[in-house]
Amino acid sequence: MKYSSFSGSLSNNLKYYETLHSSSFNHHIVKRGAKQSNHPFNTIKELHFKTLGKDFRLILHPHSTVLHSNFKAYAVDGEGKKTVVHVDRGNFYTGRVFGEKLSDVKLHIDNGVVTGIIHTPDETYHIEPSWRHLPDQDDGTMITYRSSDIHFSWTHNNGSRPRVCGYVKEGQELEDDDEDYNYNVESKQEQMEKNKYLKKSQQSDHHNNVPYEDGNKKRMKRQSDYEYTPTKTRCPLLLVADYRFFQEMGASNTKTTISYLISLIDRVHKIYNDTVWQDRQDMDGFKGMGFVIKKILVHSEPTRVRGGEAHYNMVREKWDVRNLLEVFSREYSHKDFCLAHLFTDLKFEGGILGLAYVGSPRRNSVGGICTPEYFKNGYTLYLNSGLSSSRNHYGQRVITREADLVTAHEFGHNWGSEHDPDVVECSPTASQGGSYLMYTYSVSGYDVNNKRFSPCSLRSIRKVLQAKSGRCFSEPEESFCGNLRVEGGEECDAGLLGTEDNDMCCDKNCKLRKNQGAVCSDKNSPCCAGCVFAAAGAVCREPAHAACEGEATCTGASADCPKAPAIADEHECAERGRCRNGSCVPYCETQGMHSCMCDIVADACKRCCRKSLNKTCFPVAHNDILPDGTPCIQGFCNKGVCEKTIQDVVERIWNIIEDININNVLGFLRDNIVGVAALATALLWIPASCLVCIYLYIFFYIIRWQTTERQLEIAEIAK
């Protein structure tokens, strides 16, 4: 795998992480169908590993429902020639943590390297390849971290909060002036329109969506304000990776790039699919709305253009983010999709990470989902588009959790949400759950609301979905009994699809064999043994001392493993912390101080505290060394030494001085063009400005001297 020479430290992104090698995973096929079948649930996989002080036992099955039945992927060269790329759907998995109710797992496994997310009721865990962030690690190494360990890179050290996203509202002249939608309260007229739709939905609708010409603008003729079909719940996507994204996030490997995008959308889909779109919490809403990937284009090299032309994938050092989105929106193929999204590795001015056209429920508006074309400056634009960048304002690659939230945020604009207004209901404080997903400034930490839509966003998006989703959304594929997960009306699920019906607890219809005395299923419940409740005291979950959780034992009256008891207070936990009320309190906080990172290299891998937030950070003891993999001031710790992951400009200058040759000089100038330009400007203009000041001083001195002499002459004459 190719490593990029431009990579950054994780110290700006993660408070703590661990590395994990592919050899640490124990793979085991739990069930393979006796009958040949291509069904995804025909193979059940168990994955076991230990990281972050926790033993993980994952029950997985192949999962590709986020891919459209006609999904296609292509590699595109500089001339625009497309080559079909085969995607192995069997490398994508979904599942659960054994014994953890309400857990959910999304993984991609490629040559033993895992990328994924593990949701449990108490925490969310992330796994991703280390080569994107730690270039000195080998191909088989991954990093693991908790959501609570993330320090989002869009929060500056000085506390300022940059806008890292924007949205565009185009073509408002096409909107009807007499339509003044209230996003908060549903009007009687809107209720009447919905009632009319419900009556008409039972009739033929083949006359809907008939285009007609009005001057030079094509509009859509409307039979009703609402084009909502309850069974159409998937927004078909076109995903496009430019050559920069291909090189940096995909390691110049087409399949790696495609797999990254599929996994990302799978995680974003869950955020949307789990959301209930409603006007108020006391009102009914609807859920299950999400995404399906219909097509992926990966540009393997820059697009070659003729003079004067512009293309979103052309070689250009710097793009204005809005200009790039507009050029991307000129692509004719966007009309065949609900949304088109560009993934790039460009660093935009002001730390911008994304931009999208915002959707509107108004019948003739353009922008967002299911939009008609729009004409501007001689071009036809398809404004069902947006873009995301993987390069943050530090110039580093974003971690996967950041990429998920940025993409989900931009899709939120496309679906009809503007930024959350600064009101208590939609922009609460951290003590009330923190900012929501669509906050004006991107979320600054791990708060419960960060991956949720605010009440304001729910109302706005609900309007747009009701008005337009029927135009371009599609119906999802159905799920089946046999995936080893108890869902809906199932009593059990032994993963029997494609096998003989021989499970002694659960039949092929996912019902317990009650006539044979079964009260639970061994394959679904950790406190089930021989189809009956396990005896009280049987261990169902090993202790996790690092997380202050003790050994969990069965009650004898339930098949579920109860919550683990808290380890006694003051018991030592991770990083010399102490258990208090079931949580691991860091060492510094146990001493009445605050945890921090020493900024002196010699102390960077020692445990450091500060007495208050505005005091100096200092090492608590010279022999208290941080474990390997802990972030430090210039990289990460390795055997007590803070190792660099990148070289700074000053060090590279000295390297060039020590070994001067034309290639080194040119390489330095190319890689540091902005800094060199600034330095050259300073070297030119600072001396020049000094000379100008000296000349001006001499000039005014002479003028003053001449004036004084003239006044003296006049005085002499007057005498």
TrEMBL record:
Keyword Nucleus listed: no
Organism lineage: Eukaryota, Metazoa, Ecdysozoa, Arthropoda, Hexapoda
CDD domains the UniProt entry points to: ADAM17_MPD (cd14246), ZnMc_TACE_like (cd04270)
Spans through the membrane: 673-703
Keyword Signal carried by entry: yes
Residues annotated as binding Zn(2+): H409, H413, H419
Name this polypeptide is given: ADAM 17-like protease
Protein source organism: Papilio xuthus
GO molecular function, one term: metal ion binding
